[in-house]
Amino acid sequence: MMNRILMLSASFAVAAFVGCAVADHKPANNTYTGVVVSTVDGKLTMIGKNKKEHTHTVAKDATITCNGKDCKLEDLKKDQTVTVTFRKQGDDYVVTKIEAKSAEDKEEKIDK
After folding, report:
1. DSSP per residue over 12-35, as a string?
2. Is the Cβ–Cβ distance between 38 and 45 less than 8 Å?
3. CA 47, CA 55: separation in Å to the nearest integer?
4. CATH top class, domain 28-108
5. I want to staple 99 with a disulfide (CB 3.0 to 4.6 A). Which of 14, 83, 93, 107 is the partner?
6. What's the rounded Cα separation, in Å, for the pair 98 and 54?
7. Per residue in 34-88, pLDDT tens?
8. 59 exposure class (CB count in 10 Å sphere: 0-12, 13-18, 19+)
């Protein structure tokens, strides 16, 4: 009986550890939404729903739209809401698509 309890406890501990590691990583659907902090040197810094700041490398061939129209990374403005799509490249993730909405679009803005 004690062996079963120990095995069950060990299984829960492993599951909790793996679950926490996965939860702190990128979402399974490869997209998430946040607010632009800055764009510098081919990188996008943003704050997600978890209220943590993240910096991402943007692929040179990334598709970027602002309010449905083609734009450049440099066109993104602080506090704009963006939905980012990414792919795994080596040990890192690279942004392949950014969909931005106006900073004035308060209904879609993520609470900071």
Report:
1. HHHHHHHHHHHHTS--TTSEEEEE
2. yes
3. 9
4. mainly beta
5. 83
6. 15
7. 999 999 999 999 998 889 998 999 999 999 999 999 999 999 999 999 999 999 8
8. middle
